[in-house]
Amino acid sequence: MKALDQLTFDNRFARLGDAFSTQVLPDPIADPRLVVASASAMALLDLDPAQAELPLFAELFSGYQSWQDADPRAMVYSGHQFGSYNPRLGDGRGLLLGEVVNDAGEHWDLHLKGAGQTPYSRMGDGRAVLRSSIREFLGSEALHALGIPSSRALCVIGSSTPVWRETQESAAMLLRVAPSHIRYGHFEYFYYTRQPEQQQVLIDHVLTQHYPECREAELPYLAMFRSIVERNAELTAYWQAYGFCHGVMNSDNMSILGITFDFGPFAFLDDFDANFICNHSDDRGRYSYSNQVPIAHWNLSALAQALTPFIEVEALKEVLGLFLPLYQAHYLDLMRRRLGLTTAEDDDLALVERLLQCMQRGGVDYTLLFRRLGEQPVAEALQRVRDDFVDLAGFDAWGAEYQARCEREPGNAEGRRERMHAVNPLYILRNYLAQKAIEAAKKGDYSEVRRLHQVLSKPFEEQPGMQAYAERPPEWGKHLEISCSS
Fold first, then answer.
1. CA distance 253 to 81
2. CA atoms of 144 and 135, how far apart (whole Å)
3. Active site residue 5
4. 126, 156, 181: which is the final residue of a domain?
5. What is the per-residue pLDDT across 98-143, written as a single tens digit (0 to 9) for each?
6. What is the residue range of 253's domain?
7. What pTM value is reported for the model?
8. 243 — alpha (psi -120 to 50), left (phi > 0) or beta?
9. Distance separating alpha carbons of residues 63 and 57, to the nearest angstrom
10. Which of 27, 91, 109, 252 does the annotation list as catalytic?
């Protein structure tokens, strides 16, 4: 394991030049202190977890110190926000500090969120607040623990620097780690500003650094776009299968690698509601839970438009046509697993849809229902969860169908329980749990943030003394309003 001063930098994106980013130094925050750190994210850089307790750690990730070989850059990009094109966005409050190469040869972006003003801040203060930094830290690490592709969060550094949102809050910085921070919006920026030479540089950079397997294809750019479509179909299936709502699926918030990216007013479903809107600012429900699939396709269409100078339109359309079938296949596979099914039958999707309809009518807890279905033999499990439903006749009809389906499966009840518990979490990041941790952190008590992080790092394992984190939320906890303000 390495110390902080032993990291190796190879700043590939910075070397693309000033047309792609602007060199900016972080603006330090006052009185930096460690709020929480992820040992598993530190391991991506081969960092010793003990380094998080050193004063240098907080100084590096609060803007006071930097590595000699780092090259902090604010990236420029554009994007479609709530369906409307914004011609110039960019890193308005974050900086790509540099790219670290670990001992396995993997490149990892270090992106410092809340690092101060940049040329792309658009009158903003360039800061992030403690609450949003904690939410992104917990959210990205929770998704990773669930097996859902995501950027990672290495740490949150708190401060006494005041910032104003709806009220006065304290600034914080979050260090995000990912193989790349390139978004759909990067391609859109160079397409709509008519800079084909720079767009060519960008597409070749992404192809070489992130999709090298596509270089041997007959049409490398088309092969790369197909890989992007495939990855995003799988990602969207994971979101839907696990009840994750992103909240701000603007094209500038979509990663070119198909990972969950740019956390804002996200939420996991509590009571199942297909029309759930997690973003208080989303008046029309553009990014509701049920709309995430068509919006993912819409965003890929926006990316495809930006790639038309390099790929034939008909070929792009053909690849885009793969998205929905790929999504449906991934989603059905995940839902079969969640229901403990190892074989495939033609009516399985209808079985899933009828269960969701019953859940919708009764406001059944999405996470706990699947967990409880796997805790006992099928008949006993169905009897246990029956009282959660309002439409008892509908649920009984579904239960009889599900029991018959399970009886056609190979294996015994114990094997079914192990399979289902391996994919159905007991612990999920509920908004009210995050809010309780945030309220304590605002008072200088970071113990709840750290405890919640540890619980969520093993979501499938029952943890002694942590039953409170596995319970249904109180009514007030189901109606928290989360906005884009951070």
1. 9
2. 14
3. no
4. 181
5. 999 999 999 999 999 999 999 999 888 899 999 999 999 999 999 9
6. 185-333
7. 0.96
8. left
9. 10
10. 252
